[in-house]
């Protein structure tokens, strides 16, 4: 007999389930729905990824390796995890002892508090990899740290942009501004030497730029991974002679990156070390015809 609830909730549109019970339960629901009610219980079936433990085993009460999402969100101690096995499990005492050993191995300090956002982020990241999720709580905790960094970065930005800040009307406007700035920087970097100076590049210039290009292939700056006054000195020499670096991709990347620093930031760089490459580089000879 059809009731108001049946008319309201049957049939549904979508069923969400795992592929492991596709023929055990989903097929039965379809059979009995057609046989008893004459209608399919749903039109679409969404098969989500299977959540397994960190070792790839299916989470099962019989194995005692089930992770309660609330425990990941709020955190739980190892003692409370063991207590859940004693109170909520119908396992054989030997299996309970085995499950407790597994909990002690996987969560010696318990499960840290990860929060809702980190758990959602982790499940979304895992789902992109395939249909099985080997849920590692340490990875969820890592995403918690990542979300915390995003929060702190946003909070720092909001503190410094001022009350009069107005966001761009659209993302396209912001992208256009960034694109224009990059094109301007690149145009300055690859601009050919002024024809009025009749500059001719010597083999010595090419060899030095090649040497720079090889260095910047492995390092961000002339002295490693921190900018110094040596970088400023090289940029000044490149600009003095109007040298083109378009044929040297790593030098071009370094040049565009250095151009993004303000004068105040450049002044704060550590003192130049006077490396041989800086002291001997000659980027060109100005010869008058």
Would you give an account of this structure?
The chain is mainly alpha-helical and 289 residues long. The protein has three domains: 4-48, no CATH class; 52-134, no CATH class; 171-286, Up-down Bundle (Glutathione S-transferase Yfyf (Class Pi), Chain A, domain 2). It contains 13 helices and six strands. Strands 1-2 form a two-stranded parallel ribbon. A two-stranded parallel sheet has the order 3-4. A two-stranded antiparallel ribbon has the order 5-6. It is elongated, with a radius of gyration of 32 Å. 12% of the residues are buried. Residues 193-202 and 282-289 have low confidence and may be disordered.
In short:
By secondary structure, the protein is mainly alpha-helical. The protein has helices at residues 4-9, 22-37, 69-74, 78-88, 93-106, 116-127, 137-160, 171-190, 203-218, 229-241, 249-258, 263-267, 276-280, and strands spanning 14-18, 44-48, 50-52, 132-134, 199-200, 285-286. β1, α2 (22-37) and β2 form a beta-alpha-beta unit.
What layout of secondary structure does this protein have?
Elements: H1 4-9, E1 14-18, H2 22-37, E2 44-48, E3 50-52, H3 69-74, H4 78-88, H5 93-106, H6 116-127, E4 132-134, H7 137-160, H8 171-190, E5 199-200, H9 203-218, H10 229-241, H11 249-258, H12 263-267, H13 276-280, E6 285-286
Parallel strand pairs: 1-2, 3-4
Antiparallel strand pairs: 5-6
Helix pairs in contact: 4-5, 6-7, 9-11
């Amino acid at each position: 007999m059809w009731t108001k609830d049946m008319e309201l909730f049957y049939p549904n549109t979508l069923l969400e389930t795992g592929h492991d019970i596709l023929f055990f339960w989903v097929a039965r629901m379809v059979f009995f729905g057609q046989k008893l009610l004459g209608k399919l219980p749903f039109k679409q079936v969404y098969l989500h990824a299977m959540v397994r433990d960190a070792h790839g085993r299916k989470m099962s009460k019989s194995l005692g390796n089930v992770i309660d999402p609330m425990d990941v969100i709020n955190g739980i101690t190892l003692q409370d995890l063991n207590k859940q096995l004693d109170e909520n499990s119908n396992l054989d005492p030997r299996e309970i002892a085995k499950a407790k050993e597994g909990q002690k191995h996987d969560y010696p300090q318990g499960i840290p508090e990860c929060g809702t956002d980190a758990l959602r982020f982790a499940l979304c990241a895992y789902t992109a990899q395939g249909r099985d999720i080997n849920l590692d709580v340490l990875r969820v905790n890592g995403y918690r740290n990542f979300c915390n960094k995003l929060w702190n970065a946003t909070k720092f930005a909001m503190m410094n942009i001022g009350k009069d800040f107005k966001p761009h009307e659209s993302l396209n406007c912001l992208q256009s501004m960034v694109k224009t700035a990059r094109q301007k920087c690149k145009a300055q970097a690859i601009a050919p030497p002024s024809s009025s100076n009749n500059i001719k590049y010597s083999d010595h210039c090419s060899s030095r730029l090649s040497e720079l290009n090889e260095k910047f292939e492995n390092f961000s700056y002339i002295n490693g991974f921190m900018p110094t006054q040596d970088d400023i000195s090289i940029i000044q020499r490149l600009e003095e002679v109007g040298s083109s670096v378009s044929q040297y991709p790593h030098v071009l990347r370094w040049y565009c990156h250095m151009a993004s620093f303000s004068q105040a930031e450049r002044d704060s760089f550590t003192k130049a070390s006077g490396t041989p490459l800086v002291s001997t580089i000659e980027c060109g000879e100005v010869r008058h015809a």
